[in-house]
Amino acid sequence: xxxxxxxxxxxxxxxxxxxxxxxxxxxxxxxxxxxxxxxxxxxxxxxxxxxxxxxxxxxxxxxxxxxxxxxxxxxxxxxxxxxxxxxxxxxxxxxxxxxxxxxxxxxxxxxxxxxxxxxxxxxxxxxxxxxxxxxxxxxxxxxxxxxxxxxxxxxxxxxxxxxxxxxxxxxxxxxxxxxxxxxxxxxxxxxxxxxxxxxxxxxxxxxxxxxxxxxxxxxxxxxxxxxxxxxxxxxxxxxxxxxxxxxxxxxxxxxxxxxxxxxxxxxxxxxxxxxxxxxxxxxxxxxxxxxxxxxxxxxxxxxxxxxxxxxxxxxxxxx
Length: 319
Prior knowledge:
Layout: H1 2-20, E1 24-31, H2 36-55, E2 59-66, H3 69-81, E3 86-89, H4 97-105, E4 109-113, E5 124-128, H5 130-144, E6 149-155, H6 160-174, E7 179-186, H7 191-204, E8 210-212, H8 216-229, E9 236-238, H9 244-252, E10 261-262, H10 268-280, E11 296-299, E12 303-304
Parallel strand pairs: 1-2, 1-3, 3-4, 4-5, 5-11, 6-7, 6-8, 8-9
Antiparallel strand pairs: 10-12
Helix pairs in contact: 2-10, 5-6, 7-8
């Protein structure tokens, strides 16, 4: 009898050791790096995963990046099969809502980023401040022009986020009678497309004082078209998201057209990964008196100038 009890005790201890070593599996899903911002976001996601892996051996991460929305839906289903307990997902678009809802309803701690879902099927929704982002950027365009001049706008992919930005841009311009928006066309957050749209603007409008894109990739394409045209009328060029090449130009003062930028931080992915960790462990922010993390978090957009650009320059980031 004593021998049986001893064997049972050994088995229980062995099982306890297995359970103690069980990993908390966390999935991270996002679009593949098809643009500069997403390349930076990927870098920050992997940095957060690496930092947390070194800090907490109880964690196991699965990172997947998809080339299209169909692939991302499949990736998300695969993560569930792998037994994840927490998910950080940057959706291609809100059409993934039904897939994310199934995951959320399984009790998997769910952090949704940026583009969001059509209904609240998440524990936390973390996004950048599109309203403040576009408002700050356009205010700087107007200020740098002395509140008088012709502006062309390059839009992103037609989407709720793009609509918010364009609405804010127009609202700011409407405050100043000397500011005219000559045109506003989509360039799909793509450098080559931005070059083509800007070429059309240059052919169509004899005097352009400023270009505003709310996106640094598109700004690079637009400026390439302008420089290749040989024209000298442009006074101000403002993008957004703080691509390191442009932040360096602001630091150095090496391009008279580029004096400011506005943050739309790709490190939102790193914060999302951290929220997935903290949330699944049932923890909250230090000094936070509530028992759960906030359901919706909006990251502030910050103005980058020559005076503070060094604080936003990350030479190791791909963006």
